[in-house]
Write a structure and sequence with these properties.
The protein is of the alpha/beta class. The chain has 16 helices and 25 strands. The longest helix is centred in the N-terminal third of the chain and has 17 residues, at 31-47.
């Protein structure tokens, strides 16, 4: 039995001396060298006692070695679980315990904080730092540069990506080999990627965008990536002349536009700019096209599905829309109460079905049944509409999910923390438009009778307990929260009231 994911994305490049990664310091890594390192890491994982199907939880900085660890999991049949590098040890504990991870790999700086968590679960703990050092790579050194790829079926699990709703526990979205592979192959065709492309990669690789979209598309065609540790305007401007394409979040493009050196001449050789993970403001579309002559291609995806829609490579890329459903994805807009399709142009819940749709939530059959219909349609929870030409527009998100700079923020998590602060009676967290991040969270506080909340102290408390990307941009004290006749907080009223807070 073969291993479809590894064979198709990685194994077929064995022995190739073509450059896979260009690094920020001017280094080059060939496909051959990368896959030899991958084999060594796979041997190291095996020596640690891992078996096919075991989960590997990873919270590490972006590096070629980090990518080799992901590839080694595919080759060894292990389930890769990438975790945001901003998560605190408290936040990580749930993911490690819930997933039943057999191995946790973290940055050396985080080892002490995770030691007690790992001890309680029985998982092994190894380190891998952004410079490629750490106990895992020490173990990999000297291992054979070939590894007998473990047989896996296309429906076997390849990855867990944790997502969440506005209430309840985080959910581990189970992605199969076929889920990841089918989406990569579709995007190659839709976005016209070839072996001659060079992708400027400044995205994190703990997120589906940088890992399972950008990286897998390049692997599928055997092209090169300029592999930057993070988005840094200076580095991006330096390396852009050597690239043909770029994938990013709206923040990337607004920061480039803020630099006068980013002009039409600098972008003239580029083939394609792609944006996703957060809404791109129409203003950014217009400014970018005026400055460079390029029209950004916006698309729509989710943790549970990877990509669902895309504006066309050839044809009109409409600002404010996420384009058409991908060729192998069925998309419908339904009434949230009945599940029946709504009339064309009306707003409803977006549902999708296709080979990209995940298998369900890890150990959560009730949640899976509630969001994944028996006929295979996934209820995304996103509100959208489809116009007469077939373009899909996202008009809001059910459950009040906030996407800021490409990262999901769940208001309930912040609200629970804010409600516990001295002097606070209740709170509501909303997302408001932000030119740099797409949207950003704002906390609305209602004071207890006779109390005056210390906003600065509350902000400090929030920042200590939550990852930085979840921090509210601003805290506002109001006399009362707007409610409907059923007593439900009207967040739409709040969003409208504060929509111009950071845009103007």
């Amino acid at each position: 039995m073969p291993n479809p994911l590894y064979d198709t994305l990685f194994g077929r490049h064995a022995g190739s001396t073509d450059v896979f990664l260009y690094t920020a310091d001017g280094g080059e890594l060939s496909y051959k060298a990368f896959l030899e390192q991958t084999a060594q890491v796979a041997h190291a994982l095996t020596h640690l006692g891992l078996r096919a199907g075991d989960r590997v939880a990873v919270q590490i900085e972006k590096s070629p070695e980090a990518l080799a660890l992901c590839a080694a999991c595919a080759q060894g049949g292990f389930v890769f679980l990438p975790l945001n590098t901003a998560y605190t040890a408290t936040e990580l504990q749930y993911f490690i315990e819930n997933s039943g991870a057999a191995l946790v790999v973290c940055d050396s700086s985080g080892k002490a904080a995770l030691a007690s968590v790992v001890e309680d679960t029985g998982a092994k703990l190894e380190t891998l730092d952004g410079n490629g050092s750490g106990s895992l790579m020490t173990l990999a050194q000297g291992q054979p540069t070939e590894f007998d790829t473990v047989d896996r079926d296309g429906e076997d699990l390849a990855a867990f990506l944790y997502t969440s709703g506005t209430t309840g526990r985080s959910k581990g979205a189970m992605l199969s080999q076929n889920n990841l592979l089918s989406n990569a192959q579709t995007l190659v065709k839709q976005w016209r990627f070839t072996k001659d492309d060079v992708l400027l990669h400044a995205l994190p690789i703990f997120h589906t965008h940088g890992l399972f979209v950008a990286t897998n598309v390049c692997l599928a065609v055997g092209c090169s990536m300029i592999f930057l540790p993070k988005f840094d305007t200076e580095q991006v401007l330096t390396h852009l002349p050597n690239a043909t394409s770029m994938m990013g979040v709206p923040t990337f493009y607004t920061r480039l536009l803020d630099d006068a050196r980013f002009d039409k001449a600098l972008a003239s050789h580029m083939r394609l700019f792609i944006s996703g993970s957060a809404p791109l403001l129409a203003e950014t579309h217009i400014r970018f096209e005026d400055r460079t002559g390029h029209r950004i291609l916006e698309r729509y995806g989710m943790t549970e599905t990877n990509m669902n829609t895309s504006n066309p490579y050839e044809g009109e890329r409409r600002a404010g829309t996420v384009g058409f459903p991908l060729p192998d994805v069925e998309l419908k807009i339904t009434d949230p109460d009945t599940g029946e399709p709504v009339p064309q142009g009306d707003v409803g819940i977006i549902e999708v079905r296709g080979p990209n749709v995940f298998q369900g939530y890890w150990q959560m059959p009730e949640k899976t049944a509630a969001e994944l219909r028996e006929d295979g349609f996934f209820i995304t929870g996103d509100l959208g509409r489809m116009d007469e030409d077939g373009y899909v527009t996202i008009v809001g998100r059910g459950k009040d999910l906030i996407i800021s700079g490409g990262f999901n923020i769940y208001p309930k998590e912040l609200e629970l923390l804010l409600d516990d602060q001295p002097g606070v009676l209740e709170s509501a967290v909303i997302g408001v438009p932000h030119a740099d991040f797409g949207e950003t969270p704002v906390g609305i506080l209602v004071a207890e009778s006779g109390q005056t909340p210390d906003v600065a102290a509350i902000m400090t408390a929030v920042q200590a307990d939550l990852a930085r990307f979840k921090h509210p941009r601003k805290l506002v004290v109001m006399e009362a929260l707007p409610r409907n006749t059923m007593g439900k907080v009207q967040k739409n009223v709040l969003r409208d009231q504060f929509k111009d807070l950071f845009v103007g």
